[in-house]
Each structure stands twice: as C-alpha cells, then as structure tokens.
Amino acid sequence: MASYPLTLPAGESSPLGILTHPNPALWILELRNGVDNRLTQPLLVGVLKPALDAVETDWRATRGRSSNNPNEWAPAALIITGKLDQDKFFSNGFEFANIKGDRLWFPHTFDPIALRLMSFPIPTIAAINGHAFAAGFVLSLLCDYRVMTSGKAWCSMNEVLFGAPLPVSFVHILKSKLPSPAVLRACTLEGKRFTAQEAHALGIVDELADGGSAGVLSKAEEVAKRVAGLAKTGVWGIMKKSIYPDVFEKSAGHAQPLYPPEEDALFRSKL
C-alpha cells in the first residue's frame, strides 16, 4: 500500500499533484500545476501516471479480501480535480508553445497515459472546478463521469482559434464522448465555449454543483459513492475498451498532424 497523502512528483518540495485516500473506496487526485493547471510533461509523467499506478496497485491488492468471493475486488473510485484553493481552472490544457515542435508528444507522452485513464479499471470522476480548455477538457472526457461547478466556467476545444490541428487521439475521444455530430462540430470547428449549464443540458457533464471547488468535490464524492461498487467484478475497464473501440484501436501511434504553415508548404510543393 502507498503511504497517503502521496505528493507527486516524489521528492518535490512543491508538488504538482497530491493523491489522497480518504476512505477505503475512494482516491482523490488534486492537480496543482500553477495558476491554470497546464498538462505539462512533468505533470503527466510525474503525477498522473504514478498516481494511476498507485491507485490500481492498491485496488488490485484487495482481490478476495472484502468478501467471500476470491475473484471479487473492493468497491473503488477515483476523483481527479483541479487545485482546491481556487475556483477558476480545472485545466487550461497543454503549454502549446512547448509541444508544437514535438512530433512524438502524442504517441510517446500523452496518448499512453490518456488510454490508460480511459480504460482505468475503477470508475473515474472529473471534478471540474473551473475552466476546462483544450487538453484540459479532453482530460475530463477521459473520465467516466463529470461533475462541474455551476459558476463561471467553460468547457471548450479552442484549438481552431489559435491554429492547432486536433491530434488523432483527441478526435476519437471527442467523437466517443460528445453527444452528437452537431455538438462535435460546434466544439471542434467553431471552438464553442460551453457554459456549465449548456454542458449539463447536452449531457457532456453529469452533475452541476454550487459552492465552488468544495461543492464540486463534495458532489463528486457523492457520485463516487454511488458507482464505486461497479468496480467489484473487475470488468469495468475491460468493458470500456469494448464500448469505445475507435479510441483504443485507432488512437495510438500517431504523430502530431501538420500545422497550417506545414500544410501550406506541402500544398505549394505540389503546384
């Protein structure tokens, strides 16, 4: 068993993430990367990956311990939230300037962790306690449930507005989790900012919560308590791979798509 609270990356005096285990059926991962919680390489590799490792290791160790069934695990759920001392950002996505020239960012860094989270063997809940932009919005969609603040916060894929093509993994995640082609179009090609109320009405998020970050976390804990028992048979993650086949079969191994200047150069080279 890990020793909780677990501060990540290990050994850092100012952790980018804190993993707690407040009761036997619940883990909470608080992401704490600066004012807007950017999904940087240190956060993804040094926080999210080891947090998933710790949770899954501890949960798998419960097999046969909580009942008379040797093939049954304990109830469990994981909540992922933004910094709890603010109500402005869940995550503002990647640091675009730092990944723009990295052709291997997606196949080597983001995609393996994203697919791991999307197929995680226990229910996952995104406690969206502020804006969720671009990859931050995708992070919330990788979770099984979403609870969002009812205050001023948007969900948005704003890449079209700053000239970044969508990677293959993003496309399949969005197509699998958004409710309709019309919503997909508005989200991706128009860069629409969905208010919390719009996102809830469309089914993008499952619950709204008053009371800022504390209220969002409390509501997420209610959802976690309701669904934690679904982890007991061990098929939760396996079923998700069947439910979202395009995400798992078509996302991995693709480099970043061409950026507009590259596509422009390619077009001109054919004239």
From TrEMBL:
Highest taxon, organism lineage: Eukaryota
Cleaved signal peptide residues: none
GO terms, biological process: fatty acid beta-oxidation
GO cellular component terms attached to this protein's record: peroxisome
Pfam families from the UniProt entry: ECH_1 (PF00378)
InterPro entries: ClpP/crotonase-like_dom_sf (IPR029045), Enoyl-CoA_hyd/isom_CS (IPR018376), Enoyl-CoA_hydra/iso (IPR001753)
One of the record's GO molecular function terms: delta(3)-delta(2)-enoyl-CoA isomerase activity
Similarity section: Belongs to the enoyl-CoA hydratase/isomerase family.
Protein name: Enoyl-CoA hydratase
Organism: Botryobasidium botryosum (strain FD-172 SS1)
